[in-house]
Amino acid sequence: MSALSRRILPLLDRVLVEKIVPKKTTPAGVLLPESATAKALNEGKVVAVGPGSYTREGQVLPVSCKVGDTVLLPEFGGTQIKLDGKDFMIYRDDEILAKLE
Amino acid sequence: MSALSRRILPLLDRVLVEKIVPKKTTPAGVLLPESATAKALNEGKVVAVGPGSYTREGQVLPVSCKVGDTVLLPEFGGTQIKLDGKDFMIYRDDEILAKLE
Amino acid sequence: MSALSRRILPLLDRVLVEKIVPKKTTPAGVLLPESATAKALNEGKVVAVGPGSYTREGQVLPVSCKVGDTVLLPEFGGTQIKLDGKDFMIYRDDEILAKLE
Amino acid sequence: MSALSRRILPLLDRVLVEKIVPKKTTPAGVLLPESATAKALNEGKVVAVGPGSYTREGQVLPVSCKVGDTVLLPEFGGTQIKLDGKDFMIYRDDEILAKLE
Amino acid sequence: MSALSRRILPLLDRVLVEKIVPKKTTPAGVLLPESATAKALNEGKVVAVGPGSYTREGQVLPVSCKVGDTVLLPEFGGTQIKLDGKDFMIYRDDEILAKLE
Amino acid sequence: MSALSRRILPLLDRVLVEKIVPKKTTPAGVLLPESATAKALNEGKVVAVGPGSYTREGQVLPVSCKVGDTVLLPEFGGTQIKLDGKDFMIYRDDEILAKLE
Amino acid sequence: MSALSRRILPLLDRVLVEKIVPKKTTPAGVLLPESATAKALNEGKVVAVGPGSYTREGQVLPVSCKVGDTVLLPEFGGTQIKLDGKDFMIYRDDEILAKLE
């Protein structure tokens, strides 16, 4: 992932994710049918994570995913950010559904 | 259950369930009446579980069902996922009603 | 209560109740007036209970009714389940109003 | 209060109250004006109480009224129950406004 | 304040207040303009207080006003009660704005 | 600030603030344009503060501003009070945005 | 940042941010297309921070950004303040998305 013009450091339990846009064509350049891209998973790459959130007693709860993870994103929620022409989303750690391997 | 093309690792207290689609025909191939399939339980097979959720003091509360369990699913809620042509749902542990034996 | 084709094991603080349907006729077979059945209590028999819910510190709080209890059910809430032609409901322990003796 | 055909044992912090219906006539049988009954307090007699509710740490908090108390009821809330031709209500302890002496 | 026909003992953190109705005439009997009464403070006299509310750990938190205090009442909320022709209100301790001296 | 006819003692974590009405004319009496007063900060002077609110364990959390502070008020919320022809507001400590020096 | 006519000291966990208005022209004075400014990040400079918020046990949780930080602001929320012709916003620490480097 090429370096960004500026570094975004999420606060508290937030996670910065670069959306993975499903490919529209096969490696050979053949256009994929609409149905194929529609069924692609809503996923993204973790670019940066916050320090974590506080418990009621002031302890820090670490975020459950780390930079480089591929994660499964929820249908709704998150804040959209455009930087250097790329699509990023900021979620709370608790909104992210799963890791993908 | 044949291996999936990708592994989905639920985060926190989430549970990945593969929906059990009620059979439409008898083993001998006779079509079952609509009423039979309508009354089938809304159930699924647990495919993967998260590490659990945090209590306020930062302790981890384990998820109450485990991989391989057959579980009774709520009417609403959960996030739908399609992978390798199969229907999966992701629920919070707290949404799942019961185990079925 | 005849054995069910499958065992339903409620999770967390849930309670499985078989609804008690008010009799429509007297023991001698005489049809009871509509008003009689309308005034019958909304009650059921506890068939299975979950292990209980967690306190914030991760302790388990046991469910307050046990298998075999006859209980007074709330007007709303609960999840309906049909199994072997019988009507069951799953409630949270906290939704059940009272025991009936 | 004549014994009921069945005993209702409220669960958790619930309170079973028999509604006190304001008298429509004077002891001598003279019909009271509508305005008199309209101004009567919304009160009831405590018939049974639950064991109490749990604090977050699993301690039991006793209910604040006891069997035999006359209590002032809120305008809304509670669950209505008819048994042996009498009107009962089930409230949470926290809904009941005051004791009346 | 003349004794009431019945004693009202608020439960938990509730406070029983007798509303102070702004005078419509001067001591000499001259009718006050509407604007004067409209600007009167919404106040009342504390007649009885409950024992207090429970903290999560089951400790009792005392109510912050006492019998005899003149208090400033919120615009909304509270439950209205008429007894012996007088207007009373029951509030939660937390709803009462201030003491007036 | 001239003494009020009556003392208002806020309860719990409430703060009594006298609104600072933006001047309409310059010291020399010249009328200020509407736009000038429109841009004035929504501020007030703290006249009295409550003892503070309780934590869950019954500890008292002191209010974060003190008598004499000039404070920045939120656009909404608070309860309006008129006394001796002056405009007062009662806020919860948590609603007040900032101190102004 | 030139000194303000008055100092604003945020209370509790609030953060005072001066909005960074995206430049409309290039350094040479050429007008930038609407699309360029539309894609600018919603950011601001931290001017002052509060002492922090209280945990349930009365501990102070410090604010997670400090004076001089450039921060990424949420689309909604915050309170707008105009002072000395400049645009400021007051947010809760928890509303601010990330730091920008």
UniProtKB/TrEMBL annotation, chains A, B, C, D, E, F, G:
One of its GO terms (molecular function) is ATP binding. Transmembrane segments: none annotated. GO terms for cellular component: mitochondrion. Pfam families: Cpn10. CDD domains: cpn10. SMART domains: Cpn10. Keywords: Chaperone. The keyword Nuclease does not apply. It comes from the Eukaryota. Belongs to the GroES chaperonin family. This is Mitochondrial chaperonin hsp10. It comes from Cyanidioschyzon merolae (strain NIES-3377 / 10D) (Unicellular red alga).
